[in-house]
Amino acid sequence: MTDTRHSRLSAAGLLRRQFFAGPVASIMLSLLVLAGALLATGVPRAVAAMHTAALEDSLEQFPGREIDLVTSSRNLPELGAASGDTTLEPEIEAVWGAQEQRLLDIRAGMPELLTHVTGEPLTALVAGPTNAGSEGSTTYQLFTAYDPRIREHIELTGGEWPAPLTGPVPGGAPLEIVLADEVAEQMGWETGVDRSIPIGTDPQDVRLVGTFAAIDPHDGFWTHVPSVALEPAVAYTPEGNIEVTGLGFADPVSWAALEESKLPTAMDAWYPVIPERIRAADSAELVTQLGEFTSQVFVLGSGSWEYWFATVGEVAFTSGLTDALGDAAVAASASDAVLATIASGPIGVMVAVLVLGARVVFERRRTGLELAAARGASPGQLRGILALEGLAIGLPAAIVGGLLGTVLVPADAGAGGWTIAALFALTPMVLLIAAEPGLSPLRRARADLGRPSTGRFRWIAEALVTVLAVTAVVLLYRRGLATSTATTGVDPLLAAVPLLLSLLACLVVLRVYPIPLAALVRRTSRRAGLVPFLGSARALRDPSAGIVPVLAVVVGVSVTVFSSVLLGTVQAGVDRAADAQVGADASVAGTPFTLEQLDEFAAVPGVAAIAPVYSAKPTKVTADGRARTSTLIVVDAEQMRRVQQGRAAPTQLPEGLGETDTEDVPVLLSKPVADFVADADSADLDGEDFDVLGVVDGRTAYSPRSNWVLMDVANAKPFTATLVPRTVLVRFEPGTSAADADEITAALAEIAGENAVVVTPEDLLAELRERPTTQGLVISLVVAIVLASLLTALAIVLTLVVGRPARDRLLPLLSTLGLGRRGERALVVWEIGPVAVIALVAGALLGIALPFVVLAGIDLRAFTDGDAQPAVTLDPWLIIAVLAGSMLVTIAAAVAASRIDGSVNAARAMRKEEEG
C-alpha cells in the first residue's frame, strides 16, 4: 500500500504542491510563452504565404510571352520524325517530332526548380500576313498558323477540323483552315468558301472548313501568336480603305507542303512558366537558374540552308521572369522591412512582460523557497526547483504554441520560427534562476530607497541607449531607402530604430515625470485629503512604475499612432497611384475597337477628349547582340496630351515624338529598357535603329508594366503590322459630378461591348486595396495594434500585481483608520496613473515622429503600386481615434488592476514582516 503522506513529502510531491498552491501566475506565464511561440512559428509562415500570393498576383499581370522561356526565329523548323518518344499524334510527330525531341531534351537538362515551374515545350509558327482578297473598299489580310498541339488550345464551334495539305504548293488542293467566330464574321468568310493568297507569283486557294473558340482565352499561348487570332483587327489604310486582319489555324502537317512557299514566317518555341508553382522563398535560386539557362545556347536544328531558306540552328532562350522576380523580391523586402519595423516594438514589450510575469511567479514562490533555504537547502537545490518549474511552464506551452502556429498557417518558412519558439520555452527557466540570489530575507531592501551605485549605473545605461538611438537615426538618414534588402534580408538597423527610440522615450519619461509629481506632492501636503498626498508620495518614492510599464505604454501608443500614420500614407499613395495608372477620368480596354466605336466614344455627352493606345505588343530590344523582350506602346502623342492635360502625374511625351523625317525612329523608353541599352555600342528595336528622346522611371497609363518602348503612331508601321486600338483613355468635361461620371462610364461600356472593361481611378483604387501585399500590411498593422494594446494592459496589471504585497500591508492598516474601498482603489490608481499619462503623451508624440524617421529607409511603393515613394500623410481623425483607443485600454487596465482584492485584515497586516 502506497504511503500517501510520504509521497506528498517527496521531492516530486513537494514540487507538485508548490505549483498548485499558486497556479494562476504560472498559468499566465505559460500562456505568454504559448502566445510567443505561436507568433514565432505562425508569423513567418503567414509572411511567406503573403509573399507567394503577391508574387503569383504580380506574375499574372504579365503576358505569357513576357515571362515564358522563349526563343524566336525567322528561320524554319527542321522537319522530321523524333528519335525517341513524344506525346504528339503519330502523323504530326512525323513532321514536327525532330524539333519536339530537341525541346524535350533541353528541358530534361534544366535544373530541377526551373523544370518544376515550367510546362512542356510548345511551338507556334506563323506565316504572313498575305492578301486574302477584297470586297469593295475592304481588303482582307490573313495570317496562317501551324501549331503541333493546336487541338489543346481551341475547340470547334462549327464545321470540321482542317485536313493536312500534302500536294504541291501552289497546287490544286486548297489549304484548309479554321477561324475564330468573330474573325470569320468580320472577314465575311463562310464555311466551305475558298479564297486565295499569293504564294510567290501564283495563287493558292485557302478554304475555311470550320470555326473555333479558345478553350482558355487567358492562356499564355495566345500571347505567342498575333492578337488577331481570336479577334480581328479593323483599321483604315492611308488610302482610306478598311483593312481587316485575321489569323487562321491550318493542320500542322500542312507546313511540310508549305515549307518552300517563301512566305514570311516567325516561329516561337517556348516553355510556359506556371506562376502558381513559384514560391517566393525560391525566387533567389530560380533567378540564378534562369541566368544560367538563358546564358547558354542550345541546338534546335542543323541550321543548314535548304534552297532559299535556312533551318533553325543554335538558339538562346530569353525571359522577362528574372526582372519580374526581382521586382517581386524588392516588394517582398519592403514588406519585410515594414513588418520588422512594426514588430520590433511589441517584441521588446513581450520580453519585458515575460520578465514581469516571471517576477510575479517568483514572488509567489519566495516564502516557500526562503523556508527551504532556512532549513538547509543549498543554492543549487533552489535553482533546480526553479529550473524545473520554469521548464514545466515554458516547454509544454512552447510546443503547443509552435504546433498551433504550424497548423493554422499552412506554409513553409523554414525552421527559424521553431528556434525562436525554443528560446521562449527556456525563457521562464532562465528568468526564474536569475532571481534566485534574492531568496534570503536578510537581503531584502526597501524598494523606494535607491543606492548611489544604482544611480551611476542608470546614467551609464541611459547614455548608452541615447548614443545608440541617435547613431541609428543618423545612419538611417545617411543611407536612405533600403533598396538592396531583396538580397540582404531585413535590415537590422531599420528594425532596431523604433525600439531604440521607444527606449529613449521611456528614459525621458522616467526622468521627467518625478518633476511635476514632486510639485504635486508639495501641493497636496498642504491639503486635508489623505489619498492625493499619500498616492502622489508613494508614486514618487516607490519606483513601481519602472521601465517595463512605461515601455509598454510608450510602445503601445506609438505603435498604434505609427500604424495609423502608415495606413494614411499608404492610402494616399494608393490614391495617387490609381490616378496615375488610369491616366484619365476613365480607361476603356479589353477588345480591339473600330473607328466607328472611337467616334461614338468621343460623342458621348460629358466626354471632352479621347486618346487611343493603338498597340501594346511584345517587341524585342537588342543591345550588342543581347536581346530582351519588351512591350511596344503606340499612341498619338498630341491626342494623349489633350486627354492628360491637368492631371497630377501624366507621362510626359517629348515634342519630337511624332516627327517622321528623322533617320532613326524617335522613342520614349522606360528606365529598365534605357538601362539595358545605356552602355551598348549598338542597339535596335526589332532590327530598326531608334533615337531615345526621353526616359520615364516607371509605368504609364498605357501599360501595367514598367518595361516598355513608346512611339508615336506616325512611326509605328514598320514595327507592327496592324494598328489596333485596344485601350482608349477618356477625359470628362470639367466639373463632372460622380453621378454624371457613372452615366458616362455606363455609356462607354455599352459602346465598347460586353468583353471590354471600363476602369476609373476609383475602380482601380478598390482593386489595389485587395492585393495580397496591401491586405497583408493592413492585417499586420491591426495585429500589431491589438497585440501592443493587450501587452500594455497586461504590463500595467502585472506591475500592480508585483506591488500587491506592499499594499497588503498598507491598505488594511489604512482601512482601520477609516479609509474606504474607493480610497483604496484610488491609491492603487495613483501607483501607475501619473507615469501612464506622461507615457501616453510621449508615445503619441513618438508615434507621430516615427514615420518621418523610419519611412526614410522603407520603400512603400510595393504597397501603393506607384512609381514614387509616397509622402508621409497625417490623418488627424484616424490619429485621434487610435489615441482614444489607447487611452481607454490604459484606463481600463488600471481600473481592473485596482479592483484586485487585497482583503488582508489589519491583524494579519501587523504580523507581516516589515520591509527592510
UniProtKB/TrEMBL annotation:
UniProt main location, coarse: membrane
Keyword Transmembrane: yes
Membrane topology: Multi-pass membrane protein
Signal peptide: none
Cell compartments where the protein resides: Cell membrane
Pfam families: FtsX (PF02687)
InterPro entries: ABC3_permease_C (IPR003838), Macrolide_Exporter_MacB (IPR050250)
GO molecular function: transmembrane transporter activity
UniProt family annotation: Belongs to the ABC-4 integral membrane protein family.
Name the UniProt record assigns to this protein: Putative ABC transport system permease protein
